[in-house]
Amino acid sequence: MPTNITTRRFVLREFRPADRAQFLAYQTDPAFTIFHDDNELEAANANNVFQLFLEWQQQTPRQNYQLAICMGSDDAILIGSCGVRMQGCRDGEAIFGIELARPYWGRFGYAQEASAALIGWAFATLDLSTLIADTAFGNAAVARLAEAAGFVRTHADDKQWWRLSRPAWNDARLQPQRTLP
Questions:
Q1: 153 - beta bridge partners?
Q2: CA-CA distances (angstroms) from residue 171 to 28, 88, 115, 149, 150?
Q3: Is the peptide bond before 61 cis (omega within 30 degrees of 0)?
Q4: What DSSP string runs through 28-82?
Q5: Helix or strand or coil: residue 149?
Q6: How far apart are CA 26 and CA 10, in angstroms?
Q7: Whether the model pTM is above 0.85
């Protein structure tokens, strides 16, 4: 059954083949790629990643979920993507990630709203105990997003690593909501 998560402003849904052009456009935008490695900058790489997202939908049992973030009023307008990937992780753990196309960075809590929806879904539906995330050094906005969601920085190597337990998520949800600047 396809995954479809609705928020106040967005629909997080399975990628469709028709999303490919919008995905490639934002993935290859030079402003978007400032925190990416050189091997991630080419259209061929973005195309391969998009194809992988479509293939994950066919997994049995499903280990990875990468969802399109679309404007709720028109789920054909792709503004980014978010995912939970259990493959290669310990039981009960998954890697969490989110990205928005450059025109949507810093816009009215967009990443915060989409993240909260996916995190809540992952803990409830996939029965996870922990989410793990990484952020590039210098990406202060994503570090603030991680902290606002309740993630705790655990260590750093070539990236900063974060961890969010289900109890910490539940505690964070009980706190007054603060929209990131």
A1: 162
A2: 38, 28, 16, 10, 8
A3: yes
A4: T-TTGGGGS-GGG-SHHHHHHHHHHHHHHTT-SS--EEEEEEEETT-TT-EEEEE
A5: helix
A6: 18
A7: yes
The pair of structure tokens assigned to 127 is 């029965």
Place of tokens 């753990």: 93
C-alpha angle 93-97-102 in degrees, rounded to nearest 5: 175
Q: What sign has the CA pseudo-torsion 166, 167, 170, 175?
A: negative
Considering the domain 4-174 in this protein, what is its CATH number?
3.40.630.30
Structure tokens at 100: 């928005």
Contact 80, 101 (CB under 8 A): yes
Half-sphere exposure of 171 (CA within 13 A, CB side): 8
107-156: per-residue pLDDT in tens? 778 999 999 999 999 999 999 999 999 888 777 788 888 988 899 999 98
What are the tokens at 7?
């928020």
